[in-house]
Design brief:
This protein has 275 residues and is an alpha/beta fold. Helices cover 43% and strands 15% of the residues. The relative contact order is 0.20.
Length: 275
């Protein structure tokens, strides 16, 4: 692990200024209010930024969480369902709402979206994996924006064990992305608990993901989400080992994605290995 002052990080982040294919993962905490209802303003900001990035000639795949949370909100539930069947039912409702909103918002900027609902089995099966890769490539060739989520109605791995963080890393690896940006509800990886330690500060650059970092990152996700910093570290481990630079950053201001792509220090930068 390497810690640097904010002002020293730019030379490391500058490697992202030339990326061509990007995976952006957005979590429930970014997409929804505490009520579980969709955060429309935040979604519009994110869609605007992604549309502009695609207009510049880059390719972007969006991995989105939020189906269960948005579904629970639309159903008027005060809390996220606790049973697997309840979560799956909420996900089927929330996924319709999410894709309707994404399609409408991206359409306002002249962009077409394509939905991918994936399971662990799809990636592990060689034939399915090859079909996924071919479809992704064709979607990019057509100029459309792939939007990916776990197929919660039939797969329970994500519902039980984590958020879509690992899925985003798997997608990034699958499509040969240059960078993975994970948007969450905190500014990055801290060297302590910022809620308990007033001296805790963000670790700007991580060269190696160690067991010590996983101990620091302990904790749960938001009320309507399932992830936490541990799942982000797991995702960063998958992607960096595949040679993909990874950023964990706050999703509260999607415009900061521009800063990342301009080479500025934002959040925590996990350096890719063998690059």
């Amino acid at each position: 692990m390497l810690e640097k002052d904010e002002g020293e990080g730019n030379r490391d982040m500058a490697t992202l200024s030339n990326v061509e294919r990007i995976v952006i993962k957005v979590g429930t905490s970014t997409l929804a209010h505490d009520t579980g209802k969709a955060n429309i303003r935040r979604m519009k900001q994110l869609v605007t930024v992604i549309s502009d990035i695609v207009n510049s000639g880059k390719q972007v795949a969006l991995v989105t969480s939020g189906a269960i949370g948005v579904g629970a909100g639309k159903l008027g539930l005060k809390d996220r369902p606790t049973t697997t069947a309840g979560k799956q039912a909420a996900a089927t409702i929330g996924q319709c709402e999410l894709m309707f909103m994404y399609d409408k918002m991206f359409g306002e900027y002249g962009h077409t979206t394509g939905q991918f609902l994936m399971t662990k089995r799809d990636v592990e099966n060689s034939e399915c994996r090859e079909n996924l890769i071919n479809t992704f490539e064709e979607i990019f060739h057509m100029g459309a924006i792939p939007i990916i989520n776990e197929n919660d109605a039939v797969a329970i791995e994500e519902i039980l064990y984590g958020d879509n963080d690992s899925l985003s890393a798997i997608v990034a690896k699958l499509i040969g992305a240059d960078a993975l940006l994970i948007l969450t509800d905190i500014d990055g990886l801290y060297n302590g608990n910022p809620n308990e330690d007033e001296y805790a500060r963000i670790i700007p650059v991580v060269e190696e993901i160690t067991s010590e970092l996983f101990e620091i990152a302990g904790g749960k996700g938001s009320k309507f989400g399932t992830g936490g910093m541990v799942t982000k570290l797991q995702a960063a481990q998958i992607s960096t080992e595949a040679g993909i630079d990874t950023i964990v950053m706050s999703g509260n201001e999607p415009e900061n994605i521009y800063k990342v792509l301009e080479g500025h220090q934002v959040g925590t930068f996990f350096q890719a290995k063998n690059k």
